[in-house]
Every structure is written in structure tokens, then in C-alpha cells.
Design a protein that fits this description.
3 domains; mainly alpha; DUF1759; about 325 residues
């Protein structure tokens, strides 16, 4: 907590400390460097705050939470960014007065970028690490929330893209410069690599066929298999595959992934509830497996309770023996 509060103090005093350099050292380069440092400090502060808020070991009655110091530091962060921007614009005017001609539009975009970004509402998309199963979701969500967002500068689109693209996918963008003018190129690189319907379908089908079977009769393993099949089918459907007509195949595949005990229960259920000669539907199988998951969860909870209760009674008996 001490290091976290110290970092917050540096954020609060960022422009004040910059001003102590004196006019001669408060150059454009120094200002931009301090702005970048301020942004990094804020990222660290925000990450640490989230960790503290989620921790069960932190005292929520601490002054940090009671006085809402997170909000105070956030306001100071935004205010200091504005002060840095004002100083950059001031340096620009002084530079123009002595006859130099920098690229004004480019300079303004640099000066205003961090402030505007800080005021943007948080856009939560979810990372894309190159998993082909996740591409359609990421592509459609990114287009809707970032690319088609009105009046969003290209530099921010590039920032969001580099924020959410990870792993294998980010390696494709290594040769693409970071400037906003290169966003269209970066997006095109991802599209050309991942937006290949034939390749996507082949990879999704491979993942579907190679989905590991249940390792044991547990609620977790059952839902891993069921959700794995359903998620892959949903991804295939988004690519235009007629999965609604695949009942024979999906039932056969899913049955091969569940345990023998689970298959026996499914067959018993079919014999009891309907004509066993009628082909199964995937919807019926899903309903059965969800009910089976609930039953397994209940049994597992009961076993845990019984085990804990037994341990408690043994402890009491041991204590009584010691007293006697």
C-alpha cells in the first residue's frame, strides 16, 4: 500500500514537479516525456487499485478507501494532463513566433491525444490472442465499438487495437508503425490473415472434432464439454454454417465426449420420455446434460458438506476427550 500511495502522490504532483525544472528546461520534449511517464504511472496506479479492491485481505476501512483517494488521484491525473497540454500549446506558439514551422496538426494531435483518451468512456472488448474460434466475436465487436464509433480519431483506434490484440495476433502487427495513419493498414493485416472463411471453418471443425472427452463424472467436466461444443457451433453458425441442421452429427459427437455413465443415463432418459426410435435432437441432449450438471453439482456440494461436518464432529469429539 505504501508504494501505491507514493505512486499516487507522484501523479498528483506531476506538473508541479515539472514546473520546478525552470522555464529553460520545460521544453517540448521534456513535456512529452513527462506526459508519457504520467500515463504509465496512472496505468500502474489503476492496476494496483483494482487488485486492492478485489483482495480479501485489504481493510476497507483504511483511509485510502474511506476518503476515496482513487477518485482524487484520477481527477489530479486528468488535471495534470490538461496542464501539460496547455504548456505544449504555449511552447508551440513561442516556437512559431521565432520563425520555425512545425507540423501544427501533428503537434496538436500529440498534445491532445492523452487528454482526449482519458475522457473517453472505457471500451471493453475482450482480448484477441489469435484463437481462430474467437476471431468473429472480436472482429464484429471491434468494428461496432471502435471502427464505427463516430468522431473517434484514427490514433485512438490504433491504441485500442494494440490494447486488445495479444499473443500470436500482435506478432502480425510488428512491422506496422503505431501512428493513427497506419490503423487501416493494421486492421487490413488482421483481416487478410484471419478473415478467411474457408480457413476459419476448417480450423473450427478441427477444434470441434478434437475436443477432449470428459475426464471424470463431474459437473465441471460435463459443462466443459457441453460449452465447448456449443461455443464452436455458435462460431461456425456465425460463419454461415447450417449448424441448425446438424443434429445427427452434433448429438453423435457430443455423446462420444461424455462418460459411459452419462451415456447410460441419457439412454434411460430417452426410453422413459419418448419413442426411442425417433432420432435425438441436440436441443434435447443439451437439456438433459444441463439437468445432469445440476444433479452432479448438488451431489458434489452434499459430499463437501458431509465431509466438513464429519471433520467438525471429529474435532469436537477430540476436544471432549482432551477435557475429560
Amino acid at each position: 500500500m505504501e508504494a501505491h500511495l507514493k505512486n499516487g502522490g507522484l501523479i498528483v504532483r506531476a506538473f508541479e514537479n515539472f514546473s520546478k525544472l525552470g522555464k529553460g528546461l520545460m521544453t517540448m520534449g521534456a513535456c512529452l516525456s513527462r506526459m508519457e511517464q504520467l500515463k504509465k504511472r496512472w496505468d500502474e496506479f489503476e492496476e494496483k487499485h483494482e487488485a486492492l479492491a478485489a483482495s480479501e485481505e485489504v481493510d476497507l476501512q483504511d483511509d485510502y478507501f474511506v476518503k476515496d483517494q482513487y477518485s482524487l488521484v484520477y481527477e489530479a491525473f486528468l488535471n495534470n494532463l490538461c496542464l501539460f497540454q496547455d504548456h505544449l500549446l504555449k511552447v508551440k506558439r513561442e516556437t512559431l513566433q521565432i520563425g520555425t514551422q512545425p507540423k501544427i496538426a501533428e503537434f496538436r494531435s500529440i498534445a491532445e491525444m492523452d487528454v482526449n483518451r482519458a475522457k473517453l468512456p472505457s471500451i471493453v472488448i475482450g482480448d484477441f490472442s489469435g484463437d481462430i474460434q474467437d476471431w468473429v466475436r472480436f472482429r464484429d465487436t471491434f468494428k461496432e465499438m471502435v471502427i464505427e464509433r463516430p468522431n473517434l480519431p484514427a490514433i485512438f483506434k490504433m491504441n485500442y487495437l494494440r490494447t486488445y490484440v495479444k499473443g500470436e495476433a500482435v506478432e502480425l502487427l510488428q512491422e506496422v508503425p503505431s501512428g493513427g495513419e497506419h490503423f487501416a493498414t493494421a486492421w487490413k493485416v488482421l483481416l487478410s490473415h484471419y478473415d478467411n472463411k474457408r480457413l476459419l471453418i476448417n480450423k473450427l471443425m478441427t477444434k470441434l472434432m478434437s475436443l477432449p472427452a470428459m475426464a471424470n463424472d463431474s459437473a465441471v467436466e460435463l459443462m466443459r464439454v457441453l460449452n465447448g461444443v456449443r461455443n464452436l457451433l455458435q462460431a461456425l453458425k456465425a460463419l454461415g454454417s447450417p449448424v441448425q441442421h446438424w443434429d445427427h452429427f452434433t448429438v453423435f459427437l457430443t455423446r462420444s465426449k461424455i462418460t459411459q455413465q452419462c451415456r447410460v443415463k441419457w439412454e434411460d432418459s430417452v426410453n422413459q420420455l419418448r419413442d426411442p426410435t425417433v432420432p435425438d435432437t441436440f436441443e434435447d441432449l443439451c437439456k438433459f446434460l444441463e439437468a445432469e450438471r445440476n444433479a452432479l453439482s448438488l451431489l458434489e456440494s452434499t459430499k463437501d458438506f458431509t465431509k466438513k461436518n464429519s471433520s467438525f464432529h471429529k474435532g469436537v469429539e477430540s476436544y471432549d476427550k482432551q477435557r475429560s
